[in-house]
Amino acid sequence: MKDTKLYLVIPCYNEEEVLPETAKRLNRLFDAMEAGDLISGESRIVFVDDGSRDRTWELISSLSTDYPRFRGIKLAKNAGHQNALLAGLMTVKDECDCAISIDADLQDDIEVIPQFIRKFDEGCDVVYGARNDRTTDTFFKRTTAVGFYKFMKAMGVNVVFNHADYRLMSRRALSALSEFSEVNLFLRGLVPLVGYKSDIVYYQRGERFAGESKYPLKKMLSFAFDGITSFSIKPIRLVWSVGAVISILAIVAAIYTLIAKFWGVTTAGWSSLMISIWFLGGVQLVSVGIIGEYIGKIYKETKRRPRYIIEEYKKDE
Ligand code: UDP
Ligand code: MG
Prior knowledge:
Helix content is 50%, strand content 13%. The protein is built from ten helices and seven strands. β1 (6-12), α1 (19-35) and β2 (44-49) form a beta-alpha-beta unit. The protein is elongated. The mean pLDDT is 89. Magnesium ion binds at residues 103, 105, 107, 208, 213. Residues 103, 105, 107, 208, 213 line the site of magnesium ion.
């Protein structure tokens, strides 16, 4: 008898159209995994209602009364995908051996869940699901998404390429995650900071089978912006560099202005104006950069991220 207690955590926002089918498919998968001794009979499917305005919660609550396998958590108001996900994970973290997060529309292939569990059994604490092609996404979504990962990397944020929030985390990885107390959540950037042994499982991403995307462009952009500004102070450093470049240019401009002045091709007042503009511009940008460095430090301090996570402590008993 296998005893891996798997909890599936699914954030749902106005998902009445997909929920019945999602529940049916997951139920079938759990039946098969239990029969195949991959997971324990005490595994659970946990829906998190993120303040939906349709019948989502009614559906979740009747599922959870009818079947012990299903559970429901209702958030008091719409908190956003990332917060809903965290709420679910943190609620179950002390009960499960591992938890997998997945979207309600099952665009992420649930057939690879057994592979997640196998990697977990082999000793991985984090298993990332990464899509290996994006043919089902629209051209727009595909290009913006690829651009997003490239840009994040350039900005110094460590994210797993093509991985969204479809992932398995062990109980101890979840408990390490709970030590991060930041409010601006960008989970796919945080989880790699936790550390521990991890692996990637590749899958094909399907289309949403019903309902429409709850991530319009506006939300996507603000999500990307959050990701960068929550993880990187590179934009601040950029101000510094621009300031330094302008300061060097100021010297060049000063030399040029003086030459022009002594050749007598200028009007009175021009040289002093030119030199001041360039020089002040450079000085101001460098000053803003310096202030920015301090703000960057304050920002890192206020996050109160754990400075280390201990994996093992061996000692004589
Ligand atoms: N979601 C949520 N709260 C929100 C927006 C979305 O819990 O405010 C959930 C949604 O129900 C779904 C998941 O986040 O389970 C991903 O949303 P969606 O599939 O619409 O995003 P897309 O796949 O289009 O990026
Ligand atoms: Mg989706």
